[in-house]
Amino acid sequence: MMVTVTARRFLQSAREFLYGLTGYEFAETARRRRVACEQVFMLAIIGDLLGAPIPRSYYSLGLLPHLAAAIPGWRRRMLKEKDLTEVLGYELS
Amino acid sequence: MNSVVALIIGFAVALIGYYWYARYFDEKVIQVDRKKATPARMYMDGVDFIPTSKHVLFGYQFKSIAALGPVLGPIISLQWGWLPGLLWILLGTFLIGWIHDYSSAIVSLRNDGETFGALSYKLISPRGRVILLSFMYFYLLLIVSAFGSIVANMLKGTPSVPLAILALMAVGLLSGFLIYKKKMDILLVTVLMVVLSLVAIWLGTVVPIGGSYAVWVVFGLLFSFIGAVLPIWSYTQPINYISFYLVALGMLGAVVGILVGRPDFSVPVFTTYSIGVGPLWPILFVTIACGAISGWHSLVSSSGTARQLENETDTRYVAGGAMYMEMILALIALIIGAATFATFDDYAANLKALGPAGIFAAGLGALLGKLGIASEFGKAFAGAMLVILAITIMQLAVRFMRIATAEIAGEGSPFFRNTYVGAFIAVLLTYILVMTGTWSYIWTLFGGANQLMAALALMLVSIWLAKEGKAWYYTFFPMLFMLITTIAALVLTTRNLIVAASKLSAGAAAPPAGQSVGVAIGGNVISAAIAVFLIIAALLLAYDGLKMFGKARAGKLGKAPAPTAAPAAKA
């Protein structure tokens, strides 16, 4: 029983290690592409976020509740001071 | 020395280092705490900050740090005999290498996931960041130049390799298209593309392609240029992905080949103190860079990994473990170099004729031959593997240089913000350096810049440790050793370059084959100027850093506020 559990754990670790070596960067790219689209979208509805709705984007009010969870991360990304070493983690790996 | 014995010693050092020294430092000095919130958990944004399984990160970290450095450095070092290189690989990793990678991640982890740019601004000085970023640009230029030169030499010397590399470009593009656009099953694409690549390598042995050194330099740079301007998912990433399997197959073949063949070292234990590239101290310590300690790793640890660690306790496994794995990779390269040829004279002659990359290809080909693989195919496979290792890093470095050009010069003129302009400047500078410089000097400069980067990372860590009231000497003395050694190596190389240039101008020496006297003098002067720049940048950073280190020890910098309580870990 103990041996089976250990073997299963080892196999799981090996699978994750292989994923890190190979497929993880695809997931990272997908995450970044998604967030780039989200940022453009956020920009489109920034009027509503600031409490000054742009008349033509009244429909964005309906979307706001769905975006509420993404606001802290977006604000952090927007306000964070960036330099070249910021892009290193992604570009150089 | 038998190669299996060397491998066993390597594994023993890795196990002792990881389970004893690394554990002690991790638990007693840093005092990692599983309950402390990591930036990944505090600022989880689904992009940069994302809690990730330690096994996934271990694989990702290793993939990011393993390149050509740990493969070629040990082979070049065999000119001193096998002992100096072996000792530096094992002791360098045990005493300095792992602690450098690990503590770079820890400093970032305990500082809200800040990268080295922000940390040098905060812990050293405002000008520290500017110097560091300028330093990094030249560091990357030297990486592309050193690797570009290796690629060109390999393609010129092994005509069976170019077809495989051309096919790899097509395979990479096709993989990106099938995975991202056609949403094909990644496993199926992987199997298809790896088989296609292997067929292309075999075809290369049937249809060799010749070309001059200059042609292959342009080819390598064109490859990198395309990688730097296209979206990363469409070209660079799929190529790197498929390449991984070829490299992994090669390394697996090497280990099995060593275990089956159990070859003895033909290189003597020690030859002489001073060889063609310089004396053992300080040149050995910059010749073998990534296999013992490498500044590149600190960039990977601090910029990417630290923001994805779910628990502080995972850091030793991810950063320290990956470094020990890289040490084993360097050891395999040393074994291949030391056991390939019948005598040391054969090794020396081949080093002169083929370069370290050629030796690796011949050695790996021989090891694969012990497994029943045809020697021509084995040699072409090993050559393709080396070119792949170099070219994947070249693409990423040119990509970063393109972004750096836009950041540094884009404020002054929008012209420099253009993607193609930034990438073109990067490849043009590389072309000039590769075509005018001498390979051995470029490699030494690359190693010097790499080790200086490591010393600067260790300085940041030492300041932070002193500021936090922790035992700083674990990183401070390694930092001093690396700083002094590397600056000495760069000073010596500068002197050699100037002497070589003056001999050329006086007509006392002949230029390298394929170069005119004027070009050779120009190349030496450019290389010397880069070396001087690196020395000045390092001295300025060291001056500011040591000043801040003194203040930190005197308690004048204050202690960082304790991190807040951790939110629940992601399931």
Description:
The complex is a heterodimer of chains A (93) and B (571). Chain A is an all-alpha fold and 93 residues long. Helix content of chain A is 75%, strand content 0%. Chain A has one domain (24-91). Chain A has helices spanning 2-21, 24-44, 46-49, 60-67, 71-79, 84-91. The two termini of chain A are 40 Å apart. The relative contact order of chain A is 0.08. The model of chain A has no long low-confidence stretch (mean pLDDT 77). Chain B has one domain (3-553). Chain B is built from 20 helices and two strands. Classes of the chains: A mainly alpha (93), B mainly alpha (571). Chains A and B meet through α1, α2, α5 and α6 of A and α3, α6, α7, α11 and α13 of B.
N- to C-terminal distance of chain B:
49 Å
* Average pLDDT score of chain A: 77
**Oligomeric grouping of the chains:** heterodimer
State the shape of chain B.
globular
Radius of gyration of chain B in whole Å, from Cα?
A: 23 Å
N-end to C-end Cα span of chain A: 40 Å
Q: State mean pLDDT of chain B (0 to 100 scale).
A: 89
Low-confidence stretches of chain B: 561-571
Which two chains touch over the largest interface?
A: A-B, 38 and 53 residues
Strand content of chain B: under 5%
Q: Quick one: biggest sheet of chain B?
A: 2 strands, antiparallel
**Unreliable runs of chain A, pLDDT <50, ≥5 residues?**
none
Please trace the helix and strand order of chain A, writing H or E for each element.
HHHHHH
Order of helices and strands of chain B: HHHHHHHHHHHEEHHHHHHHHH
Number of helices of chain A: 6
Structural class of chain B: mainly alpha
Number of domains of chain A: 1
| Largest sheet descriptor of chain A | none
Q: Helix amount of chain B, in percent?
A: over 70%
What is the spatial order of strands in the main beta sheet of chain B?
1-2
